Amino acid sequence: MKRIKLTVAYDGTDYCGWQIQKNGITVEEVLNRALSRLTGEEITVVGASRTDAGVHARGNVAVFDTDTRIPAERIVYAVNALLPEDVVVVRSEEVPAGWHPRKCVSVKTYEYRILNKEFPDPVRRRDTYFVSFSLDIERMRRAAEYLKGEHDFKSFCSAQTAVETTVRTIYDLDIKKEGEIITIRVRGNGFLYNMVRIIAGTLAGVGRGYFEPEDMERMLEAKDRTQAGVTAPPQGLTLVGIEYEKPDNSGSGSGCSA
């Protein structure tokens, strides 16, 4: 038995998120189906990030255990032939048996894209949030500075979030504009449910003038979801990648800290 790590990219538009659900098709489901067909085994992947319906990824991570004789680095080629065109495995590799994508120390990077122009662009409707009103990028950048570092982000997560702690660390939060696309890029040690989308919605509110940049400090201190801005829609969000400590492939350890 060996454990295989997959790096997975997908357009989440037509999926009910990553995790298997009763109400529709999910990315996890199509991966399980393709891998089971490939190996002849009953495969169930374990994913690193359970992205929501409509959210995209260029670098989500999943693992599965298998007895297949296919070399780990060749699985990527074989499984892609069995997947729909909106889900692609971009890398496959063997990791130690104890390696777990959600328990290992990691850094995640997300991007949220806003299409800021007078009229919608039908070509970008699946991967951007259309905002017709003018956004002040400099105000948004000043506001973003308050979110960097370790904070209690209770005001910036869904009220239904059930976790032991809402404290997270944001290492970088950058905002750039290229043409009509504003990209909010955030890198941190973990993110709460809807956290990036709420940050994006709040920063857009700052850019429009609904909030002052300094209000971000007040929102953090309040620890109250009603004090932050709206939750931006899912289609603008992409999980860019997840960085892990390098696994120990000697077999002596998992290469990660739970």
TrEMBL record:
Source organism superkingdom: Bacteria
InterPro entries linked to this entry: PsdUridine_synth_cat_dom_sf, PsdUridine_synth_TruA, PsdUridine_synth_TruA_a/b_dom, PsdUridine_synth_TruA_C, TruA/RsuA/RluB/E/F_N
List of residues binding substrate: 110
EC number: 5.4.99.12
Annotated Pseudouridine synthase I TruA alpha/beta domain residues: 8-100, 143-245
Entry keyword tRNA processing: yes
Any single Pfam family the record assigns to this protein: PseudoU_synth_1
Regions that span the bilayer: none
Annotated active site: 52 (nucleophile)
One GO term (biological process): tRNA pseudouridine synthesis
Broadest EC class assigned to this enzyme: isomerase
Catalytic activity: uridine(38/39/40) in tRNA = pseudouridine(38/39/40) in tRNA
Keyword NADP among record annotations: no
Gene Ontology terms, MF aspect: RNA binding; tRNA pseudouridine(38-40) synthase activity
Keyword annotations of the record: Isomerase, tRNA processing
Function: Formation of pseudouridine at positions 38, 39 and 40 in the anticodon stem and loop of transfer RNAs.
Quaternary context: Homodimer.
Similarity comment: family membership: Belongs to the tRNA pseudouridine synthase TruA family.
PANTHER family in alphabetical order: PSEUDOURIDYLATE SYNTHASE (PTHR11142), TRNA PSEUDOURIDINE SYNTHASE-LIKE 1 (PTHR11142:SF0)
Protein's name in the database: tRNA pseudouridine synthase A
Provenance organism: Candidatus Mediterraneibacter stercorigallinarum
Gene: truA
